[in-house]
Amino acid sequence: MSVAFTGAGGKSSALAALARESRGRLPIVLTTSTRLGIAQRSLADEHLVVRSVEEAHRFPIRADRPVLVSGPEDEAESKLLGLEEGVLAEVARRCAAEGSLLAIEADGARGRWVKAPAEHEPAVPSWVDIAVSVAGLPAVGRPLGGETAHRPEGIARLLGMKEGDILTPRLLADLLSSQEGGLKGIPEGAEVRVLLTGVDTVSREEIEDLRDRLLATKRIRAVLGAELSSPEPVRSLDGRVAAVVLAGGSGERFGGPKQLADWKGRPLLDYAVQAAREGGLSPIVVVLGARSDDVRSAVGEEIVFAENPEWRDGQSTSVRVGLSAVEDQVEAAVFLLADMPRVNGATIRRLVEAHVTSLAAIVAPVGGGRRGNPVLFDRRVFPDLHALSGDQGGRSLLERWAWQPIEADPREFDEVDRPEDLARLEHDR
């Protein structure tokens, strides 16, 4: 995997943190497509000069020793030159072949917290997998000027403000989500994430405001908050979280498709869809199977439908179909069942909030001494969800992954299997 860092406010520190976190666990190669200061030789355990494609074939890549590769030193400017285009592409090919992470500093900011890119910036290779736009939160709440910003006049022009005006969370979000700002030069095929450094310098409300504005930009898939000098630098990960509503069964025990059964004037399926909306999940995917046309007509607008032609082969087939519909867009997915009318949007929000703060692989509700649905799965677990078979759901993965519980009212876990269950739910308040 290749990751390019652009913007300002901690790109080199992010590379150093990646090297520190990867040491002994994952081979990592650090490099630049622009230039680095001489002092940045210390970003990794070893610095090697790579001048040619042939030399790019030979340098060592080891999990226990992060390496920085660059071009030769420019003594006149005390800079390490970036790799030439062909050399960098060969380094990327080697890293991919040998299972190494390649982290590229693709921009310069002269140590400032925010920046406006010049015409030739950033220098992001067309083949990178992930582009991370970096900004330092200490710039928020301070006057826009040369102390905090690289090219403050460019930022002022881009945002319609003046130098000396206060940089607010809204303005920073506008800068980072602009095609002439934080998204400039990002290849079409690259996933985009935003890294906000110095999270301890602003209030939680300001971070939440900034996060919500950034995630409203379709291109930005996740927002990370970090204190890069901390032993545990990542403080939060806010990303798009999808809802996958499993609604493909025929309801044999119920006597028909229970997702269409009426409860309090609404089909059962509608309760799961509404809870997903109230929980802030997007996109919302409903997996169809039996009576697909009828089920499709039972829910409102802004729903993505995914047809599962193999629904008779068990729940795992619907899990795979639903996951395939969302996995390229999100950082996590919440799986809901279509026969749980008491599912609660507030509980879903707590699942998401717990994932943001703990970065747990799985978050599940518990109450009354039992575990229930819906369950949130981080994208790290997606390959295991794809590997499920038969009538197996994602619940089986809780035995193989460390997971985080959140408290919930156990009545929310009630499922409808038979017609008499609807009457019981009506009287069990």
What's the structural blueprint in terms of helices and strands?
Elements: E1 2-7, H1 11-22, E2 28-32, E3 35-37, E4 46-49, H2 53-56, E5 67-70, E6 73-74, E7 79-81, H3 85-97, E8 101-105, E9 114-115, E10 130-136, E11 149-150, H4 152-159, H5 169-176, E12 191-197, H6 204-215, E13 220-226, E14 234-239, E15 241-247, E16 262-263, E17 266-267, H7 268-278, E18 284-288, H8 292-296, E19 304-307, H9 315-326, E20 332-337, H10 345-358, E21 362-367, E22 370-371, E23 375-378, H11 382-386, E24 403-407, H12 419-427
Parallel strand pairs: 1-8, 1-10, 2-5, 2-8, 4-5, 9-11, 10-12, 12-13, 15-18, 15-20, 18-19, 21-24
Antiparallel strand pairs: 3-7, 6-7, 13-14, 16-17, 20-23, 21-22, 21-23
Helix pairs in contact: 5-6, 7-10
